[in-house]
Amino acid sequence: MWEISQRYPDPRIEILDQRFARYRVFSAAVEQIVTGLRWGEGPVWFGDGRYLLVSDIPNNRVLRWEEETAELSVFRRPSQFANGNTRDRQGRLVTCEHGGRRVVRTEYDGAITVLADSYDGKRLNSPNDVVVKSDGSIWFTDPPFGILGYYEGEKAPQEVTPAVYRIDGKTLKVSLVTDAIDGPNGLCFSPDESKLYIVHSRAAPNRLISVHDLDEAGTGLKNGRTFIDAGPGTPDGMRCDVEGNLWCGWGMGTDELDGVRVFAPDGVPIGHIRLPERCANVCFGGRYRNRLFMATGKAVYSLYVNTQGVAGG
User: Fold this and answer.
1) CA distance 163 to 299
2) What's the angle, vertex CA 191, arms to CA 125 and CA 203, rounded to 5?
3) How many CA atoms lie within 13 A of 153 on its CB side?
4) How far apart are CA 289 and CA 49, in angstroms?
5) What angle do CA 178, 180, 184 make, to 5 degrees?
6) Distance between CA atoms of 18 and 308, rounded to whole angstroms?
7) Per-residue model confidence as pLDDT tens digits over 213-260
8) Residue among 170, 171, 169, 166 at smallest CA distance from 184
9) How far apart, in whole angstroms, are the C-alpha atoms of residue 236 and residue 229?
10) Which end of the chain is less congested by CB atoms within 10 angstroms, N or C?
11) Distance between CA atoms of 102 and 115, rounded to whole angstroms?
12) In Å, how far from its chain's centre is CA 220?
């Protein structure tokens, strides 16, 4: 049974390197704000409405949590087994759907616009995670996880190689960024958008996070290299703060691994937020983007931190 810490500082917030000490708020504790999920993913914050959306993939729904009242309601059901979510630079919801095998945008009036559902005449696999660059382009990963069975999607043959794609913000043209990632999963940009981090969730013997420089046009990648060898850990979704630290959903079903692992820009692990289960994805929210929301298998947790998430994340 989850219980909030009765002492400050919360012992669940672990300093692995003294650089992390400045990000810990002494009188802030990890809070459980949502329960009853089967597999939580894709948290995204709407500051204009003071609410959080989170995907519950196996239950085929997206839930809405209200900051002011803590009320939980259904935002969308069926959700086409929605996974990753973000907002574009106009504030519209962008969602990866396993069931639809597509990336969609929710317009201001609630209408759904399909941004991508195929490449080179073949259906996508099951778009997983998504980020929007300041130029309006939408970058997403497309592993086959949602078409491997009937728990988080619908079983279907794989038509394209797992890859990372880019959707042009003006023309909506879909281009292949790279298909050299072993199980492309979480992704995020550095604060200045000069680098893109990508999780290799099928790399062996360990999961990896690679980092890539953006090319001169800002539309492709170059100089890919390993940023983090996760060892026994399991990186999934991730977001950057304004100082370039990487906050990664982490875990492998053990007390010492489950939670959120924080890495400095040089790749050194500096902090860990312990949770009672593996964390799938994170986002920053609250009025000042200083509240970290963490979606796990069965719940959503939050923690105020002494930094801010990158705008647009």
Assistant:
1) 29
2) 40
3) 23
4) 14
5) 80
6) 19
7) 999 999 999 999 999 999 999 999 999 999 999 999 999 989 899 999
8) 166
9) 13
10) N
11) 7
12) 21
How many residues belong to the chain? 313
Burial of 248 (0-12, 13-18, 19+ CB in 10 A): buried
Q: Judge contact between 189 and 131, C-beta under 8 A.
A: yes
Query: Cβ distance 252 to 236 under 8 Å?
Result: no
pLDDT at 253: 85
- Collect all residues with Cβ–Cβ distance below 8 Å to 225 and sequence separation of at least 6: 210, 211, 212
The 10 Å Cβ neighbour count of residue 157 is 8
What value does the mean pLDDT take over residues 131-140?
A: 97
For residue 201 the two structure tokens come to: 């969730």
In three-state secondary structure terms, 115 is strand
Burial of 272 (0-12, 13-18, 19+ CB in 10 A): buried
